Amino acid sequence: MERPSTVLDNVENFGKICRCGDCDGIHLRIEPVSVLLLIEAYIELVALLNTSASNYEVSVARLAADDHGFRG
Questions:
Q1: From edge to edge, which strands make up the β-sheet containing 33-37?
Q2: Bridge partners of 37?
Q3: pTM here?
Q4: Which residues contact 2 (CB under 8 A, 6 or more apart)?
Q5: HSE-up of residue 6 (Cα within 13 Å, Cβ side)
Q6: CA–CA gap between residue 52 and residue 56 (Å, rounded)
Q7: How would you class 18 by CB atoms within 10 Å of its CB: exposed for 0-12, middle for 13-18, buried for 19 or more?
Q8: Where are the domains of the chain?
Q9: Which of 4, 17, 18, 53 has its CA 20 to 30 A from that of 44?
Q10: Helix (H) or strand (E) holding 3
Q11: Percent of the chain at pLDDT above 90?
Q12: Using one digit for the tens of pLDDT, what is the confidence trace for 9-63?
């Protein structure tokens, strides 16, 4: 019996992430690119994006502090 696909998130005019009912993989679509990931690779991608977003926020805060004359 085939399982239904599950939409994990959808941002209109940007992208969509689904767990496939056929292959149990994660289909990541950020227009115009579509990627099929194994669950383990998807989890690693999520960790990579979370870490990079956190590092980005730190770098922006440092630049803002430098712009205001704070050094640390």
A1: 6-11, 15-19, 26-30, 33-37
A2: 26
A3: 0.78
A4: 21, 22
A5: 7
A6: 6
A7: middle
A8: 1-37, 38-72
A9: 4
A10: none
A11: 81
A12: 999 999 999 999 999 999 999 999 999 999 999 999 999 999 999 999 999 998 8
The Cα–Cα gap between 55 and 24 comes to: 31
Please report which helix (H) or strand (E) contains residue 30, including its range.
strand 26-30
| pLDDT value of residue 53 | 97
Task: Give me 45's structure tokens.
Answer: 């991608």
Cα radius of gyration (the chain): 18
Find the distance separating the first CA and the last CA of the chain, reported in whole Å: 60
For residue 12 the two structure tokens come to 């209109």
